[in-house]
Every structure is written in structure tokens, then in C-alpha cells.
Specification:
The chain is an alpha/beta fold. The chain contains 16 helices and 15 strands. The strands form 2 sheets. A 9-stranded mixed beta sheet has the order 14-13-12-11-7-10-9-8-15, sandwiched between helices. The protein has a 6-stranded parallel beta sheet with strand order 3-2-1-4-5-6, with helices on both faces.
Length: about 475
């Protein structure tokens, strides 16, 4: 199967924080892969901008090392790497001062698509946006890309939206959530809205419940100081899991258009019920032979910040009233796994004996580590032993279903950067969407702070606190097992 490469216009992409970890690990390797795929026009250029004093050759050498580290040898070769590096330039810049801006203005072309990637801390977003505007580096057609965290509450999100809006129109602002660039997330929309098989059943009448899990095996490690001011609710639920929930629950948009899709996502957020205290479980990982506890990692013995959270969420609209969505995410868990699981209801009446057991269909959508989907259906167990029913998967792992090209699923950052160049905002968050998510999140956080709730400790390498298991057990349900 040959994938279709959609060409893009020639562009200048400026990466603020161009020497940082995200640029080295994801952005530049992703651009190299797009270059190899023939998706970068001959005149396209990438300009790194950071505090370090460095010439063009020094920057090219830095990125050569990064690509050799983060892209497998079989997926690169010296000739294409040299050709890609020729596209790279660099300028030292002072984000909060005036140094380097005039030089950047001379480097950026006015006759090409211009995009500015803010791969820096959110405290610099406003400074960079203002200087791009004041130095007339950005045009009314330019695009800016901003990374999370986009605020830490509703008030700060509104303030940041206001700062960006002072220099850029909403149509120019691309708030990136890399989860939305994953192949399987977009296939969720294709499965729902491209198959008559699913959409008529995608509602409370036929769906028993939905589970959304983002489980990590790593600790907060050296990010303990930052993470302790954030926690799993702000770091993961408010953005990544919220986006997955919206795409799972939203109504069919009138067309696959940026604002049509984002309008429907916004309706889901506004339909979310407040979450009572007994539908929330928070935890902190303990210590074991493989690493210290969260308390030790955060260097805060009195920390009440959660490294794990599970929620039971209800959506008050016609499609989903009565069907709960269970969300969970955590560090130092049993396995690294991200998935959306739709549990359909059992048949209203079974014609088989009790020995056949009860069965229901389950659609699982895997985001990582192996992107794909499978649908569990009920069949007769082979053999002469009577009518015994078993559940088997109809599996669509991309590597198996799509051949060798399917195994090499495009990285989320690659797709999203190319969408920025094309001017396609479908997979990016709109300002009112971000504010609506914080408006739902803030009362939850304020609630446990007022109550003085303290996270319970859970064993590293487990599925989280036992209280999280009870969140489903009391409803007669079970979490999907975390599997490596």
C-alpha cells in the first residue's frame, strides 16, 4: 500500500527553543522524516532560535547528532541527512529583550508561508508573540504554534489568550496537543463517521460505558519540582484525556472542517457534569527497589499533588445521559499504555443456556505503544462440546493491516507541523475550548483543596490505588487490565 503524500507550500518555520529537548527529540527528527517523504519543498527552511550563541554550522551539527540519536539508522542515510541539514539556519535571540530580533526579521521571508513554533516555557509565549508583532516579523497570514501547558487554571488561560489575541488573530493560533496527531485518534473519527456499522450504536442506548486510560511506567523524575505544582489533573486530564473524551463523545460535525469539529468538541465539554468527591480517586506512587517515592521525587514531604487520578464522568446530553466515562492516568504504573475502550451493552435477551455465559462487544482503540484497534465479538467456541460462547478479537494493528508502510506510522508531531503549514486547524484546540476545559477542571481541584483531601499511596508497577478499582467495582464493572 503506497501512502499519498500531500504537498505543501514553501515555508519558513522558526523554532523558538530550537536547541531544546522537544526540538531535538521530536520536532527536527519529524521534519527530517517529512523531508525524506518528499513533503518539504526545495525552498523550505527551518530556523532555530534560542539564547545560545551559535553559528549555522554549529546548529547543523547539533541537529545532526539529534537525528542520529532519535532516528534509527535504517531510516536515515548520509546523503538525505546532509541535504536536510542544508535547510537549517540559526540565530541567537533574547525572548525578553531586543537582542536578535532585527536579525530574525532579515532571515524570515515575506513571500513564503511563515510559522513560529513556541517550543519554550509558557512564561515566554506573550513576550515572543509581542515581539514578532512589534518587529513586523509576522504577517497577517503567519501562524504561531504554542505547546501546553496553556494556563494552569481558567484565569491564567484567559490571560494568555488575551496576550496572544493582542498580536494574532484566533485563526493564526495553533494550540498543539500531540495526542490529536496520532493516527489512531484520527481513525476514531473515520471509524465513527465513515462506517454505518458504528454510528447508530454510538449512544447510551447501546454503550454501557467508556474507559479512557493513559498509563505511564516512568516517574516524575527530575521534573518533580515542576510536576508538584501541576499534578495529573492539570498535566493530563485537562488536556490529553479531555481531547480523547471529546472525540469519542462528540456529535457528527456537519463536515470535516476545523471549526465544525471544534464546535462539537466544545459542546461535549459544556455538557460535562460537575464531578462529586466520591467519583474521584487520587494517588501518589510509593518507593520500591527501582526508584524513590513521589514524595521523594517532588522533594516535598507535605505534597498533596496526585501522580495518579481516576474519575467517573457523566455527560448530560441526549446521546450519553446514563453512560459513564471512566478516565484514569498515572505515573509508575504497571504498563505504558494509552487506549480508549468502548464497552457495548449485553444483548437484551440471550437465547443460549446459562453455561454459555454473558458476553458483550468491546471496541478498543490503542494509541500507544502499538497503534491500532480491535473489536471483540462473540462466537461459538470451536469443537463438539455444545454451544459454548467465547469472545475473539477482530484485530486491526496497523503493522498487520496496512503492510510495511502501516508499521511506520507517522509521528504525531510530523502530522501536526504539516497541518500548521497547510493552515489546517482541525486537530488544534481553539481558545474557547481551552477555557471551557479549565472551567470544568477548576471546581474539581478547588473541591479537594477545600476538603483537604490527601492522595492515597499506591504500589509502583501496579494498576494504581485500590480505591480506583472500587470506582468501577461498585458499578458492577472492571477496569481493563494494563498490559505491556
Amino acid at each position: 500500500m503506497v501512502s499519498r503524500v500531500i504537498p505543501v507550500e514553501t515555508f519558513d518555520l522558526v523554532i523558538f527553543g530550537g536547541t531544546g529537548d522537544l526540538a531535538r527529540r521530536k520536532i527536527l527528527p519529524g521534519l527530517y522524516r517529512r523531508f525524506v517523504a518528499g513533503q518539504m519543498p526545495p525552498e523550505a527552511r527551518v530556523i532555530g532560535a534560542a539564547r545560545s550563541e551559535m553559528d549555522q554550522k554549529g546548529y547543523q551539527d547539533l541537529i545532526r547528532d539529534a537525528i542520529e540519536e532519535f532516528i534509527k539508522e535504517e531510516n536515515r542515510d548520509p546523503e538525505t541527512l546532509d541535504a536536510f541539514l542544508e535547510r537549517l539556519d540559526y540565530t541567537a535571540i533574547d525572548a525578553r529583550g531586543e537582542g536578535g530580533w532585527d536579525n530574525l526579521a532579515k532571515m524570515v521571508r515575506k513571500d513564503a508561508v511563515t510559522a513560529f513554533y513556541f517550543s519554550v516555557g509558557p512564561g515566554l509565549f506573550g513576550d515572543i508573540a509581542t515581539r514578532l508583532h512589534d518587529h513586523k516579523i509576522a504577517t497577517p497570514e503567519s501562524r504561531i504554534v504554542v505547546e501546553k501547558p496553556f494556563g494552569r487554571d481558567l484565569e491564567s488561560a484567559k490571560e494568555l489568550n488575551g496576550v496572544l489575541a493582542a498580536s494574532f488573530d484566533e485563526s493564526q493560533i495553533y494550540r498543539i496537543d500531540h495526542y490529536l496527531g496520532k493516527e489512531t485518534v484520527q481513525n476514531l473519527m473515520a471509524v465513527r463517521f465513515g462506517n454505518v456499522l458504528f454510528e447508530p450504536l454510538w449512544n447510551a442506548q447501546y454503550v454501557d460505558h467508556v474507559q479512557i486510560t493513559v498509563s505511564e511506567t516512568v516517574s516524575v523524575g527530575g521534573r518533580g519540582g515542576y510536576y508538584d505544582k501541576s499534578g495529573a489533573m492539570r498535566d493530563m486530564i485537562q488536556n490529553h484525556l479531555m481531547q480523547l473524551l471529546c472525540l469519542t463523545a462528540m456529535e457528527p460535525p456537519s463536515k470535516f472542517d476545523p471549526d465544525a469539529v471544534r464546535d462539537e468538541k466544545l459542546k461535549v465539554i459544556r455538557a460535562l457534569d460537575p464531578v462529586p468527591a466520591d467519583n474521584i480517586v487520587r494517588g501518589q506512587y510509593g518507593a520500591d527497589e527501582d526508584g524513590p517515592s513521589y514524595i521523594e521525587d517532588s522533594e516535598n514531604p507535605d505534597s498533596r499533588t496526585e501522580s495518579f487520578i481516576a474519575l467517573k464522568v457523566d455527560i448530560s446530553n441526549w446521546r450519553w445521559k446514563g453512560t459513564p466515562f471512566y478516565l484514569r492516568t498515572g505515573k509508575r504504573m504497571k504498563a505504558r499504555m494509552s487506549e480508549i475502550v468502548v464497552h457495548f451493552k449485553e444483548t437484551p435477551h440471550s437465547i443460549f443456556d446459562e453455561d454459555a455465559g454473558s458476553h458483550s462487544n468491546i471496541l478498543s482503540i490503542r494509541l500507544q505503544p502499538d497503534e491500532g484497534m480491535d473489536l471483540r465479538v462473540t462466537i461459538k467456541e470451536p469443537g463438539p462440546g455444545g454451544m459454548r460462547l467465547i469472545d475473539v478479537p477482530l484485530d486491526m494493528t496497523f503493522a498487520d493491516a496496512l503492510g510495511p508502510e502501516g508499521a511506520d506510522v507517522t509521528d504525531a508531531y510530523e502530522r501536526l507541523i504539516m497541518d500548521v503549514i497547510r493552515g489546517n486547524q482541525t486537530l488544534f484546540m481553539r481558545g474557547d475550548e481551552v477555557e471551557a476545559a479549565w472551567a470544568w477542571t477548576d471546581p474539581i481541584i478547588e473541591g479537594w483543596q477545600k476538603r483537604g483531601d490527601k492522595p492515597v499511596q499506591y504500589e509502583p508497577g501496579s494498576s494504581g490505588p485500590d480505591d480506583a478499582l472500587m470506582l468501577l467495582h461498585r458499578d458492577g464493572r472492571r477496569w481493563r487490565e494494563l498490559r505491556a
